[in-house]
Amino acid sequence: MQKFSIGPVTVPEKGELLFIAGPCLIENRAMAVEIAGELRRISRQEGAKFIFKGSYRKANRSSGGSFTGIGDREALEILADIRESYGMPVLTDVHESAEVALAARYVDVLQIPAFLSRQTELLVAAGESGKAVNIKKGQFMAPEDMAFAAAKVAGTGNSRIMLTERGSSFGYHNLVVDFRAFPKMASTGYPVLYDATHSLQLPASGNGVSGGEREFMMPLARAAVAAGVDGLFFEVHPSPEHAHSDAATQVRLDQFASVVKELMQLCRCMQSIHSL
């Protein structure tokens, strides 16, 4: 398994989970800072490793009238300030190769959205940035095909790659998680994560707005940990019902500590079983 560092975080770390967590979208500085502060508190209390995530701009909204961001530089500067003030790496999405150079100046990880996971120019540009790259598996892709997406990044000489499962779409506003995907993606030699909130989406099910089934978050997240993922991805928000995006699936911030604690305990339990 490819092992590498992202700031103070080593990926993967045997017997430990990496958590990528933060709001779907940087809505304002106060909200982002509130979330970062709580993630740092959880990290100190539970010993969890965090990468803070926040999209500086959303380019793939269901409706053309949906909120897309507060401005690129303003949002990216908030992410850079969180890295400096809270000592945790930061991640954001990029949607076109032309965006990569700007975003890479502010963040530690560039994320390739699932809808764009086959875009060669984007993958190559992200690899050439030298930043770690997290590739979301397209809802339309077989898990073994992620080897080709990773190879496009690795071909630039950048092997700091993570692969993230977020469910497969068969139409009709639904996503399905096939847990065979985790060992298949792990066979690429790169760390594999599970997106525990986007996988709950019911895409574009609500008159141009994605719905979701948040009640299934923990059963699926537990199953992913039991299946051996290296980390988990969560979107969290102080008031999900008021979020500008992904309101149906983001985790309420004041409930996130218990989520992290339970999943870390399960990870340790699985490690003890494997050592028997």
UniProtKB/TrEMBL annotation:
Q: Which GO terms fall under biological process for this protein?
A: lipopolysaccharide biosynthetic process
Top-level division of the source organism's lineage = Bacteria
One annotated GO molecular function is:
3-deoxy-8-phosphooctulonate synthase activity
At the top of the EC hierarchy, this enzyme's class is transferase
Where is each DAHP synthetase I/KDSA domain found? 16-264
Q: In which pathway does it act?
A: Bacterial outer membrane biogenesis; lipopolysaccharide biosynthesis; Carbohydrate biosynthesis; 3-deoxy-D-manno-octulosonate biosynthesis; 3-deoxy-D-manno-octulosonate from D-ribulose 5-phosphate: step 2/3
Q: Which reaction does it catalyse?
A: D-arabinose 5-phosphate + phosphoenolpyruvate + H2O = 3-deoxy-alpha-D-manno-2-octulosonate-8-phosphate + phosphate
**Gene3D superfamilies on file:** Aldolase class I
Compartments, record wording:
Cytoplasm
Q: Which UniProt keywords apply?
A: Cytoplasm, Transferase
Entry EC number(s): 2.5.1.55
| Recorded GO CC terms | cytoplasm
Q: Does the keyword NAD apply?
A: no
Q: Which NCBIfam families match?
A: KDO8P_synth, PRK05198.1
Q: What is this protein called?
A: 3-deoxy-8-phosphooctulonate synthase
Q: Give the species.
A: Chlorobium phaeobacteroides (strain DSM 266 / SMG 266 / 2430)
